[in-house]
Amino acid sequence: MSANHPNIFSVKDKVIAVTGGSSGLGHHMVHTLAAHGAKVVSIARSHPVTSCADCETIKPDILHICADVADSADIAAAFDEAEKHFGTVSVVFNNAGIACKASALKTTAEMMEQVFAVNVVGAFNVAQEAARRMIEAKIAGAIINTTSILKNMPQKGAVAYSMSKAALAQMTRALALEWAAHNIRVNAIAPGWFPTGINQELMTGPASNYLKAKNPMRRLGENGDLEGALLLLASNAGGYMTGTTITVDGGHSLQG
């Protein structure tokens, strides 16, 4: 499609799966994508607090599915349900993630396993299931992973999280290389400091002002700041982009 096409950023009628869609950034993106005309499948371990028994009637273009991304059987069942409602998922926003706050010496094997189970294995499970079905249906698609600026800028007390996000960035490149022949693009978004459920304690403490002061734009990220990058990678506008990571951090990573 020509870059001059007026609807090049459109996601209208695309079937898009968002993991971690019950809260925070994921919840925001579920509703943003639906507002842009997409049919959205929100996959999370629990329904959003605002959900209700007749949510499909109120918001028919949003389907909430409870599933654990770390469980491949759960994910297969979730995609089965998504296909029954909307058809084959052609775009994935791999957003689910967890973190643990601990120094390297106090990070246990169990902590590391839990973080990698969700952030890396879970993201791979979702990407693999989506790609398998796209290939079988012979349709083009896009997978968008959520990494972090901590993949290159480790933060004290977040060793497991930083390592998992570095692994996810490399996974993005590896999958992009393998699936390009099937016209499946795999890219990533690397947010800077955004207040979310997994860093709420940090973002509501003294560190918040420190991070704002260190940022060239003198503020933390807001959910809306990621919308443009997501729409770019999910739409035809990003049709020749694969294996890349878009950093959205207000210039924070420029400070070293």
Automatic annotation (TrEMBL):
InterPro entries: NAD(P)-bd_dom_sf, Sc_DH/Rdtase_CS, SDR_fam. This is NAD(P)-dependent dehydrogenase (Short-subunit alcohol dehydrogenase family). Keywords: Oxidoreductase. It comes from the Bacteria. CDD domains: SDR_c (cd05233). Belongs to the short-chain dehydrogenases/reductases (SDR) family. GO terms for molecular function: oxidoreductase activity, acting on the CH-OH group of donors, NAD or NADP as acceptor; quinone binding. Gene3D superfamilies: NAD(P)-binding Rossmann-like Domain (3.40.50.720).
